[in-house]
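Hi P.,

Sorry for the delay on this. The queue was packed all week, but I finally got your sequence through. Input first:
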Amino acid sequence: MTLPPHVFPEAARQALHDVLRHRRDIRRGFTPQPVDEPVLTRVLTAAHRAPSVGLSQPWDFLLLTDEEQRRSVQRLAAAQRDRFAASLPGARARMFDGLKVEAILEAPLNIVVTCDPTRGGPFTLGRHADPRMASFSAALAVQNLWLAARAEGLGVGWVSFFDPVELADLLGLPAHVEVVAYLCVGHVAHFPPAPELALAGWARTRPLGWAVHHGAWGRRRRPGGEPVTVLEETTSAIEPVSASALAEAQQRQGSLTKPPGALGRLEELGNRLCAMYAACPPPLPEPVAVAVFAADHGVHAQGVSPWPQEVTGQMVANFLAGGAAVNALARQCGAEVSVVDVGVAVDLGDAPGLVRRKVRRGTADLTAAPAMTAEEAQQAIETGIDVARDLVAQGNRLLVAGDMGIANTTASAALVAVFTGRPVHEVTGRGTGIDDATLAHKMSVVSRALDLHRPTAAHPLGALACVGGLEHAAIVGFLLGAAALRTPVVLDGLIACSAALVARAVAPTAADYWIAGHRSSEPGASAALAALGLEPLVDLGLRLGEGSGALLAVPTVQAAARVLRDMATFDSAGVTGKA
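Then the structure:
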């Protein structure tokens, strides 16, 4: 096939893709060798050729080589770094302590890319509807600069630890000029094989398939691939835990400086972690992330809870303010908390830590109609999958599933009854503390819902849509998404365990990636754990939800990994083994 003359030759196309593949954000290894002026001119020329809205070319390039000037800038970055470090949970803070975030002084040249959003005048084509187009254009200039520098063998590091107003003042920029990027540029000893943040375990790269949508948001597939739903893609990616890593862990347990079995269930848990991660010894299960899925329930209208429905939204605000039990316990074990609004009845404003993914404003009353449509249930499941993917891509190695939703124990009891086959009276509990009369009424409500819909475990997604909650559906996706990425999840109480029953029915192999955090005092939770074949790590009579009981188990999970990672063997310690 003859290519048109405007198509670059194969060698040139390959060279371009090589540059894209090997471009890195460089923070280490700069040499003092100055950048030659012809090379710098070529790099800046490439940046200046970037496309821009209305051909406005809103960028300028400020070159900094003076050491004292750069030292002043470095002090600003250091102060911002310290503020950011102080905001991090324990595990993240320890990881961040080992990261280098800038090379302002090490690189011989710093380049500040600025944007003048007024350039081109009031009639700049394409800027009228969205004034941000000017800064977007300047970002393209940054990209061109970065790629051209890599082609010339120069390293580039983007420094983002600045207050933009402070930096602009320090640099004496005009009031109408914005800082888009602060770049450290220079020759380097070598380019790392992967992004530094990935090598350090801070974050992972996201596969292309997660980012390509066809025709409508959520229809993801790679070009030329078969169209599949996110749920289908996820379940097909779930693999059995590693039998070889499990065998290696069992053998290693026998060589550690302790009598075999002396650490009881901690040894079994450590072995399971090796199988989940497919590595022996296993990685330390940190950072830890808690996702609290929040939603309201139409069945609340049946009087199954003494708490008003607006408490759901109020508790979400409490989570975001850091005042709930889940926040206190997360701080204790160094975990980070995010709250996912998958179906809260009221509107929630933007707030740090809030993930807005509302499918609908609460479910329907399951005693009168299906709680949600099949499409809504799948949307909520895929929301949970995306949350799990994002948290794992951010570098988290252990996840916790939490919940919030007034009346959600009623829906949970219905799910447990369906998937365990136990009678309603055995799996329905007091939830937030109802009296005997309300408990009897709650049981009748669950029975009415089951009689109306006749859900079966053979059709798990249909059962979920009929009698489940939006947070249940999201947790189903969360559990499946984590399993597809070989990431353990610590289950909390009744709501998470009832969702786990659904998830196991959808993808049985996924259950091998879950750890029972605690035994809730809700009877349905024990029934669910028995059906799942999971023995909880903690039993303190809790029934709060939120992820609180699971967080109490996190140190035990980490201890199980520590045993295999840190204990000496009889041979390495010079200790005589058992005869």
